[in-house]
């Protein structure tokens, strides 16, 4: 069996379409369809259920794809290991990160990366948490910066930093006036149950901050009054600053988007939640010198940070 057969079959399985897979592979769709049909005849099995739209794998097809991914991963690991015999630190590093997290991490990270490894080209994949995990599974990204927890059986990770989850409140709200900390004092705590009748501006489902928020609302025992959902944290922050409601943040995210012309108040949540940020990669993946050096660089920047 050739690696090309595995590559083509994986593409069809991932795209759930012969036409989309052919476009991705830069080949003609009729050729790809015939190619897969001949492979099925060679194996004496059906890999795909063509009666469904989109295409679905058969039971034996699912087993084939699992083995194919493992073989392709081994081939990639071998190539990476051989490339490591070259001392020149150059190449492409594909990094997955959310747009919100990228806004505060990349301005710190990229200048140091460019100075330390000028011949490394960084390719960014920006998306929500579920997309980032999917891209790792498909091998599109080498490394991903994500909040824990993640599926431990599928991924390995290195912890970067820990920070407390915060409630962002309008400064003129009575609770802000009552509980807000004085200058140079620690951020005060507030029980999320006190906000049961308040309005919230939250990120969309699937984004890391939203997943944590939903978990905290569940612990608080009520369904929040969500007046708006947005993909953009800056939008949520701006709306809180004009008194439209409450949102959630962490200190690093808050400091990125904080604007003296759009002041807000901060509280730590009760129940308390500490978010762990990690650099994640697919379990069993061979880490190249470039990737190991990148992980060491990111950990040196963020890994020594204490719980914020």
TrEMBL record:
Pfam families: HTH_1, LysR_substrate. One of its GO terms (cellular component) is cytosol. The keyword Lipid biosynthesis does not apply. Residues 1-58 form the HTH lysR-type domain. Keywords: DNA-binding, Transcription, Transcription regulation. The keyword Signal does not apply. It comes from the Bacteria. One of its GO terms (molecular function) is DNA-binding transcription factor activity. Signal peptide: none annotated. Gene3D superfamilies: 3.40.190.290, Winged helix-like DNA-binding domain superfamily/Winged helix DNA-binding domain. Belongs to the LysR transcriptional regulatory family. PANTHER family: HTH-TYPE TRANSCRIPTIONAL REGULATOR BSDA (PTHR30419:SF28), HTH-TYPE TRANSCRIPTIONAL REGULATOR YBHD (PTHR30419). This is DNA-binding transcriptional LysR family regulator.
């Amino acid at each position: 069996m050739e690696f090309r057969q595995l590559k083509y079959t994986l593409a069809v399985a991932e795209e759930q379409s012969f036409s989309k897979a052919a476009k991705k592979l830069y080949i003609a769709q009729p050729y790809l369809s015939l190619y897969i049909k001949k492979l099925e005849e060679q194996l004496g099995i059906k890999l795909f259920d063509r009666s469904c739209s989109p295409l679905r794998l058969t039971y034996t097809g699912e087993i084939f794809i699992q083995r194919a991914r493992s073989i392709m991963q081994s081939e990639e690991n071998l190539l990476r290991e051989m490339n490591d015999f070259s001392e020149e630190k150059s190449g492409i590093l594909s990094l997955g990160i959310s747009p919100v997290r990228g806004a505060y991490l990349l301005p710190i990270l990229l200048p140091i990366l460019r100075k330390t490894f000028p011949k490394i080209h960084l390719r960014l994949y920006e998306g929500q948490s579920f997309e980032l995990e999917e891209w790792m599974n498909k091998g599109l990204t080498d490394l991903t910066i994500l909040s824990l927890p993640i599926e431990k059986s599928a991924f390995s990770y290195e912890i970067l930093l820990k920070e407390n989850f915060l409630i962002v409140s309008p400064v003129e709200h009575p609770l802000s006036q009552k509980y807000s900390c004085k200058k140079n004092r620690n951020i005060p705590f507030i029980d999320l149950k006190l906000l049961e009748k308040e309005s919230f501006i939250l990120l969309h489902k699937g984004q890391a901050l939203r997943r944590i928020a939903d978990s905290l609302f569940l612990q608080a025992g009520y369904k929040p009054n969500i007046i708006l959902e947005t993909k953009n944290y800056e939008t949520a922050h701006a709306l809180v600053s004009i008194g439209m409601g409450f949102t959630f943040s962490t200190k690093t995210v808050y400091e990125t988007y904080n604007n003296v012309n759009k002041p807000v108040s901060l509280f730590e949540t009760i129940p308390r939640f500490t978010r762990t940020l990690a650099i994640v990669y697919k379990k069993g993946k061979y880490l190249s010198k470039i990737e190991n050096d990148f992980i060491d660089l990111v950990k040196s920047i963020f890994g020594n940070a204490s719980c914020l």
